[in-house]
Protein 1
Amino acid sequence: MTNPHDTASPAATQVSVDTRKLALASWVTQHTPAAQYPIVLQSLGSDAGFRRYFRYQNPSQWLAVDAPPTTEDTPQFLAIAHLIEQQAVRSPRIAAVDAVQGFLLVEDFGDRLLFREANAENADSLYQQALDTLLQLHRCPDDPALIPRYDRALLRRELEIFSEWFAEKLLGHALDTTEKKLLDGWFTQLEDNALAQPQTFVHRDYHSRNLMLLDDGSLGVIDFQGALWGGVTYDLVSLLRDCYLRWPTQQVTRWALDYRAQAIAAGIIPAVSDAEFLRWFDWLGLQRHIKVLGIFARLSLRDGKTGYLNDLPLVIRYTLEVAGQYPELRAFADWFTQTLLPLAQQQFWYRDYQTAGNQSAGDQ
């Protein structure tokens, strides 16, 4: 769920990782005639999946990518890269690929993440650029053979990650029959909202760590290989209620409604009211944040990527703020606050969720 510069691979896979790294270095040598020898791969870490990224010369034009075929779908990555390139969206060019081994040479976009570059002074300009790029992505034609459906079954599987990995495995709370029934009802409402809004291309992780400022002033998009066809507000809320970077509430609302106006003008969505659009936005964002609580817990407990736990308080904040605004979901917020929050407060990673993210974007 994030980009190559953020987190290291689990120690448990180190033996196989080293073997693949040697094979990748050999493969890179074959495809980089002008490189200095011997090629030394310098790790940039891994993303939330099992792809790993390496630089191997300076100045660098290409990244070497290890995408193990047992866990990563390189043909899908290539197909989605081609699709979004057709929409004039800047994604890394691909110099060489071996889909059987899971090795790639892709364009090095550098290190200027939106996450690092955005501040109160330049946010409006940078986020308008991100919204313009999102509009381009939302113009992608539907191709059911290429882009999986973000259907009810998948939405439910994602929400159940929260139940298993956040509530039960991270916090140690065994859900009883009554709680499971209540969650089923709340989850169904969130699924209904996601399926009722217009369906478009969904990047799935369109946020400040997957958007990069390039030397030519354009915005580069990475980590798109998990794309789906689903609710139009999914990527919008991923961007504006970012799990790593919080912006003031009024600013987020203004940006969201600006996008609504542009999407209506472009024919991407019908002329819905501000209130209906914000409900789409809030509820699909809540689905995402509930899922992310489970995913971040799983990344730590299963994959050894404990750094994601530090981002849980901000995700809790989004979850409780949105659920508490709607009468239909207030019972979920109350249950979470009374049952799960006391357990979270005992965790080493916990900090006051009510102020989480304030320091990053000056929220009030």
Note: The chain has two domains: 11-107, 114-361.
Protein 2
Amino acid sequence: MSENGHETGPLSQVCPHDICTGCAACANACAHDAIAMSEDELGYIHPQIATDLCTGCRLCQTVCPALHPVELHEPRCVFATACKDAEERQTSSSGGAATAAGRYILEQGGIVYGCAQQNFQNIRHIRVEQTEELAALKGSKYVQSHIGPILRDIRKELRNGKEVLFVGTPCQVAGLRRFLRKDNEHLTTIDLICHGVPPQRMLREDVTSQAQRLRSPLKDLKVAFRWKAQYGIQYGIQFGEALNGNLRRVCLPHDPYITAFWTGLSFRENCHQCPYARTARTGDLTIGDFWGLGREAPTQFKIREGVSLVLVNTAKGQTLWDKMSSNMQSEERTLNEAVRGNTNLRHPSQRPPTKDSFMDTYRKTGDLAIAVKTAIPTRERLKMHLMEGIKRQRILVTFLKTGRRIIHTLKHHE
């Protein structure tokens, strides 16, 4: 203990375990590389300090957004939007807004950083410099992305005067901002509307199990967590190649991983007390799905084709939106409509009452399927089955109504 009452010597932890987001700002900031982001017994990543390398400088705590919250910004305006290019929209999770933003930055000679899936065992943030590389950033990844040394790379490029776009969860954006310690005119950030993040270990175990059961090869295997079906967004684990007939899908609620995600059982503990699950945001822009679009006022969009929600939060966000929106079909909406359709713009995902049971079972057995079955009552599983059945019923009803109209038209012309 020093004379002024502050601790001295090597640290044992950066911040309390239950509020750590795994943003890796601390690991990137440590000049002595004394901090490594490591999986705990359940697979969640946390900073581990090598006490023999730690000098006790406390820089890691200085940049920690859990200890020093960043300034948040209320949205200036709200848009529903989708790419005008049909193929671009179809290959995007929703309306393709993040891709449009990235494309503009790259066309200006800038660099984009976002989450990519090298394979199902390696999901991390990468650096993108060419427009053809943007495809790697497409698609929702319902898992925590590993940041690695990316924040150091961003700092280097900003010092060189490069335009940089960073896309990530709100806590990852906050980690980058705390790491840099001051705003930079060349940096624009996009935070995603996030429900919560499970650990990659659970994903690895689930996909390995499903692939073995379905006799699909694991080599270089990539997965999708959601896809656009005729009856709307379908959630599950999809892997394989559609072109050679090996495409496999295990849908909610049949897949343990996506079921644990959907119910919040597998989220990090801090996700249930997330300070960013509100309308005030960390990023210059906020992007998500525009759930509930059209309930407040009519819309021109075909919802099933995917529509992005964009919140413009800062002057830099406004500048990027003005530049990228020329390639977008857009309509201005109200913040109230956006909030009504997105729970995580109101509050964090609630902690399930059976989460402790889930964690205890998973810790003891190491079997995700058993842990999920133990924690989710039969009634809840039946609700999930019913929900998916209703989705399919909607497209069947639409098909029958169309058939009736065609028959009526033919009879009218006889």
Note: The mean pLDDT is 90.
Protein 3
Amino acid sequence: MDYISAGDIEKYSYCPLSWWLSRNERNKNSEGVRKHREIGKKIEELRGERRKIKAWESMIMYYSLAASIIAILGFAFFYTSILLGKVFISLAIFWLLLALYFLWKYEKSNVENSKPMGKLMIIASSSATIFSIFAVTFVLPPNYLMGYLLEISSLLWLIFATYFLYLALKGEIRYNKLRRELKLPNGEIIYVDDLERSPLLKSEKYGIWGRPDLLIKMGEDYIPIEIKTGRVPRGPLFSHIMQLTAYMLLVEDNFKAPPYGLLKYGNMIYKIDYDKGLKELLLKKVDEMRCALKTGEVHRNHNRMGKCLHCSRRDICPERLA
């Protein structure tokens, strides 16, 4: 089965004859393509900022945790307490037993489910080690020099954590500014139309492929977004709805059926519900296209002069109205 692209579905839905005449076109340097590339770069920049923020947030957590552990350890060198030593040795034994339990579960678990259990085992054994060190240091004689060095070290780690907090806050400001500029809905961007890095989404069942401009994960749903440049129409155009429906079908086959998709014209965003009727209409158009490819017989499907006036193929169209 030959695959039909979502872009061709959009052209066919606009006018079958216009689609037929466009089959050998190469518009890589068109104004629309250029604007899409600019939008794609900004969205990639947005995703890059989000990745940086997540990395900095992880560093904040690690450095803060390290600072807290070192601070407690430093305090233990200033102060001797048999009671605290017993408390920490009890905690160490508890976490050691927990680590052994996770190890036992890790050995018995399936390969698919073993990774989380392995992580829990590492966390529990690390905690047991830390509490064991605390238990020992609290029963040793005071060592003020070591205590001072550890407290200074703790302060340095805290300064690093504060620095990463500063970077994360700056990144959050840039991220929010870019999102406002692009006027995108909230959600995690998991796919951007990119010829080099984004894989084609395919439906083997229906023989359709395409690359949505954006795919955003909102809760458990994957929402495709089609961004249209140029003039802003009074409402969503039928051909664009068909193209978005093709993307919704591709999302359904590759992830799960989305409740809706979004059409974005400038500052306007239209929500298009994905239902059985819309899907059947799309598949009907695809069947018509396959029939046209077999027979080679394609005609204009409208009587709107304005549509022909705005068509980029009117000069070569044998059925043009104007």
Note: Strands lie at 4-5, 188-192, 201-203, 208-210, 214-218, 221-228, 260-265, 268-273.
Protein 4
Amino acid sequence: MNDMKKKATNIDKNDVLISVKGLEKSFGENHVLRGVDLDIYQGENLAVLGRSGTGKSVLIKIIAGLLTPDSGIVSVLGKQVNLLDNKELQALRLKLGFSFQNSALYDSMTVKENLEFPLLRNSKKMTQAQLTHAVETVLDAVGLLRTIHQLPSELSGGQRKRIGIARTLIMRPTIMLYDEPTAGLDPITCIEINSLINEVQERYNTTSVIITHDLTCAKSTGDRVAILLDGRFLRTGSFEEVFDTEDERIQSFYDYNFIA
């Protein structure tokens, strides 16, 4: 696994872009998050590991203001998310790129139309030439310029995932939120998506939260890894630091991923 280790990147630990303090969230009797604390720094890729149902996706939905916490403080780019009104929240979301697990593309639109949509929806006054240039730039960044006139149904799962990432990049976000970016993909395509996440970090100077249950994804993309268990972060650090433990709960998660 050594060849999958994340290369060092420039991280500014004096600049906290996302701060989570005492975060709690329940759905009825299901206590999903039980006091989560975390700071995420400028230029950092943070991989949040955990099995299905542990609250990983709930965490980034709260960061994006899609869910409201029961208690605790979540600040993004200096703004306490749950205190923002609708206009302020919309302005913040324009600085967040949310890459959904299912890519969330419109089936009736071509790739070009899918990528133009967020620019048009957010009242960007751009000529058709400017729109086309923006689309071609992000498609080139994800290596899929040739698909510009295709429909999502004509693309592979990996290609749709790349187009979904391109659609978030077209708004030039400060923060990228990836929800299970390698879910349902074959091993070779997973490697390609992991590499793309790192390329996006380097090329666009993004700060990213990568939600995953895939250890290979976490090791390949995470400057830091946090493992979520029983509603709290059990360990946080480099991949090696997190898994250098005798804690059976963490070892069982490792074995669950790499079982022979």
Note: The chain has a mean pLDDT of 91.
